[in-house]
Amino acid sequence: MPTLFDPIALGDIHAPNRVLMAPLTRGRSTGEHVPTAIMAEYYAQRASAGLLISEGTGISREGLGWPFAPGLWTDEQVEAWKPITAAVHEAGGRIVTQLWHMGRVVHPDYLDGAAPLSSSATTAPGDAHTYDGKKRYEAARAATPDDIARVLDDYSRSARNAKAAGFDGVQLHAANGYLIDQFLRDGANHRDDAYGGTPENRIRLLGEVVDRLIAEVGAGRTSVRFSPNGDTQGVLDSDPESVFVPAAKLLSDKKIGFLELREPGPDGTFGSTTQPRVSPAIRKAFAGPLVLNQDYRAGSAQAELDAGIADAIAFGRPFLANPDLPARLKANAPLNDDVMATWYSRGAEGYTDYPTLEAQAA
What we know:
Layout (H helix, E strand, L loop, with lengths): L7 E3 L2 E3 L3 E3 L16 H8 L6 E7 L16 H16 L4 E6 L16 E2 L8 E4 L2 E4 L4 E2 L2 H21 L4 E4 L5 H6 L14 H4 L1 H14 L4 E5 L13 H14 L4 E5 L6 E2 L2 E2 L4 H7 L4 E4 L4 H9 L5 E4 L1 H5 L3 H7 L25 H5 L1
Parallel strand pairs: 3-16, 4-5, 5-10, 6-9, 10-11, 11-12, 12-15, 15-16
Antiparallel strand pairs: 1-2, 7-8, 13-14
Helix pairs in contact: 1-2, 2-3, 3-6, 7-8
């Protein structure tokens, strides 16, 4: 069986190890969603990952509802990403961008008061993060055929922009209760047209978006992220295997580069609940590399590779405070603790100032 430190082909991307960096929202862009110079240092510091998956990056103004998150729909944003991808490549790394449409969890404050877009006219639970603090989510409107056509065009444009910005590929964010997930799972999708009802209909938009991404960057540089288990931002499904297994088969047939799953870890926990894992069933349906993510450490990650459930592991929070995470895991060295208060703050503190093993030794 391979180890975490063996190389792997993730479609057309050749990764030197199987320790991937999961997408992590950090809020260091401008208020107009333009990446900033400090982001080049942050990503380059973590270039020893087998592959960096960027923080969620908005495909349109309509689809981005997080303060200071980056976008990829304007020329200014594309130009600002170029030195970031260049810094990663100069450090020997590889980076793909995660394309993000948040759907119903975009607060109207980001949309000049307009209702957000979703699969159905529903309201997310809880509060949105806005530039004026937390506010209750408001009701979304159900996407019309014209809306869907426009969103597909937005995905095409963002993938085209990602290529122009120097990214090595793209990942479709189809997890965590955002727009694609709102179409996939029956807890949020109440449609009775070609995009709702049966699992075949609910995965239709997923397939159409992936086709658009493949047309721009190629199948081997396209990947997808699912969260098939549990309640994420009020989105859940009554029978996850019934929709996510055919969705995985659809992606397998399209020969995408890899599929990433955020699901309960080996102990079955997901937040405060316990959920059955869907990865074994997805493993049988998806022929390409399968990447798992959710609170792994070195031992539990290697166990997934040994069991043949996963081909690589994406680490999230450990990469926040440990820019040299692959080296630390390989050496069985202690990990720095991350500081939650700086996850989404604006400066270098808790972002680019975590020491490497080498710096600590010096």
